[in-house]
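Q: Convert this sequence to structure tokens.
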Amino acid sequence: MRIAILTNAYPYYPGEQFIEDEIVYWANNPLAKVTLLPAVAAGEPRPIPEGISLNLDMAGDTRAERLWFTLLAMFSAIFRHELGQLRQSRKMGVRTVLRALLHTSKVLGQARRLERYAQANGRIDVAYCYWNETQSYAAVLAKARGSVRKVVSRAHGFDLYEMRRELGYMPLKRQFIRAYDRIYALSRQGRTYLEETYGAPPDKVGISPLGVPLTGTLSRPSPAGSLHVVSVSFCLPVKRLDRIIEALNLFAHQHEQLEIRWTHIGGGPLLDEIRRLAGARLTDIDGVSFEFLGEMPNHAIKKYYLDTPVDVFINTSESEGVPVSIMEAMSAGVPALAPDVGGVSSLVSDECGVLLSQCPGIQEIADAIGRVALEDGRDALRTNARKVIEARFSSARNYADFVSDVLAIESTPG
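A:
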């Protein structure tokens, strides 16, 4: 069975590190002949398992091609329909119209390249799109033109929640949402959002959580009198990393006897700004230290938990799917605190950490840190964190089931 996995860049950097765990299960399934088709390919690719092919037909375009598809987009039915959607939703404006045009041109260009790939290599049985974005819309167009039999897509966070997009606008999604053979949300909340916000057909929306490998050993707590807090995220406004800094400032003043260390893993456009804020708000507090480790490979983050005592994982984002970064910490026995946004409540609870309110204040976050790290029952939180991953977010079960489900779709009528 010919499977095309459409990614943004994987196996190239940056990002999409979570596919590294999933791709193994595609490689191990004898029914699947898998080719990776990234849209971006720069530098050296990450290693991929034996039996997985890599094709760059979807990657790269010339200035002339971009201009040509922009012209096609201006006169396309897709763009005209999107202008109607913008008028109806009262989001019509220069920036939204330009974004609609840009996304339409990308979809047309990617569809053409996917069709050429199919012409050269054979019809695609299933196009599996890791993101519910322009590549998946292009696959739907290619299906309508006979180059693809079935199209399935995951929907995570940035490609799902409109509030995470500029001006609250998700280009083109409503046009294509009913054309997929299956869309996989990460949680019940994500499935409901797809159905209620975009009109996704309930019989076409499934739930397939991501997963992480279960570590053989667990992280250990810090020695008495010290506390190590870890956060992992791209440095963007939506992550609200300033709240971690302010909460640690408050917590440190309330617990002057503690040696407190904060480690943040991840880069991004706000990294320097967050580093400066940490310097201004934390440097002069006795017993408080912090470090920014920048981008780290997925395997290195997993190893970090096993090699370094970690007491609390903290997430303060205003929008999430079901974060793999939290799963990885909990797999190593690290309790987590995170806001009740997206599908976080399917992962974090008071049994294995603290589920914060949707928009937690500084005092709430500081109190949660103390509850997880200092109160009686913290050992039980560590044990329960691991149990949650074993029960619901093990990659061995979730990815094997997902691959089997996708392959079964190919044999259904339609």
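The chain has 14 helices and 13 strands.
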